[in-house]
Structure to design on (276 residues):
């Protein structure tokens, strides 16, 4: 439920920079239309952007928790139009009130003549903000779905492990034409899902095996191999460092320079394996 702007200090800095740029844009667009000093136009544009940024906090909550996709087409457009009108109207109203209270009377009445243009800019900024929020919401829902699938897979794996004894393998045979290549398990760097196959990465090259990730998750030594993502299993002994990549995601740096993303559940399993 945390607003995207508050996730880290860089997002906050970017939001402030956008507000300042909005102030400059306000000067460039409005100064040819009215005779108002640069400073007042810059302050007016910056305040307007800050107000919209503040209103975006409840707007983010609405976008995140209200799904209009299930509505009929006409109703969906009406809801979107109403939300846009409410957001832009509140932003414009607060902006005009602040201008009325703090700006010189002459400047205030000059700015009133630009209301149609300000409404147009407000609608454009609203559309850009909503589209950005929709992308973030979609990404969060995908991550949540992946975590649910990983938890379900982990639960099924634990159940099957309990119900039957699973043999731990120490080598993997790969058929290459008329030859058979044998990979020693300690030599494996990581495994990546490739549809119905699994790509096995080793210092000697990459080898495609017709097998499932679930099979390798169960049959590789669990104290050395961790499924850090639903499509990747990593040899923990070749991990050089782990860093936070973005919210609820981590980036694993391997000794050979490879970078692999780890989900929240995968990172939890990794910490458990490494006894952190």
């Amino acid at each position: 439920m945390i607003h995207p702007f508050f996730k880290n200090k860089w997002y906050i800095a970017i939001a402030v920079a956008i507000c300042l740029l909005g102030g400059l844009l306000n000067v460039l667009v409005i100064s040819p239309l009215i005779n108002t000093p640069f400073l007042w136009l810059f302050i007016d544009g910056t305040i307007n952007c800050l107000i919209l940024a503040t209103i975006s906090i409840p707007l983010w909550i609405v976008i995140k928790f209200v799904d209009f996709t299930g509505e009929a087409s006409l109703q969906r457009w009406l809801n979107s139009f109403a939300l846009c009108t409410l957001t832009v109207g509140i932003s414009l109203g607060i902006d005009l009130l602040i201008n009325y209270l703090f700006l010189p009377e002459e400047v205030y009445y000059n700015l009133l003549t630009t209301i149609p243009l300000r409404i147009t800019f407000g609608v454009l900024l609203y559309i850009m903000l909503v589209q950005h929020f929709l992308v973030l919401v979609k990404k969060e829902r995908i991550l949540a779905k992946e975590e649910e699938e990983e938890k379900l897979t982990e639960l099924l794996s634990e159940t099957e492990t309990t119900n039957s004894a699973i043999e731990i393998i120490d080598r993997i045979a790969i058929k290459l034409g008329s030859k058979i290549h044998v990979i020693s398990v300690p030599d494996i760097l990581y495994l990546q899902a490739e549809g119905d196959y699994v790509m096995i990465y080793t210092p000697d090259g990459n080898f495609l095996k017709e097998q499932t990730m679930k099979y390798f998750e169960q049959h590789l030594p669990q104290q050395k191999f961790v499924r850090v993502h639903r499509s990747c299993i990593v040899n923990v002994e070749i991990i050089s460092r782990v860093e936070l990549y973005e919210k609820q995601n981590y980036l694993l740096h391997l000794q050979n320079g490879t970078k692999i993303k780890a989900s929240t559940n995968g990172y939890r399993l990794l910490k458990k394996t490494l006894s952190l």
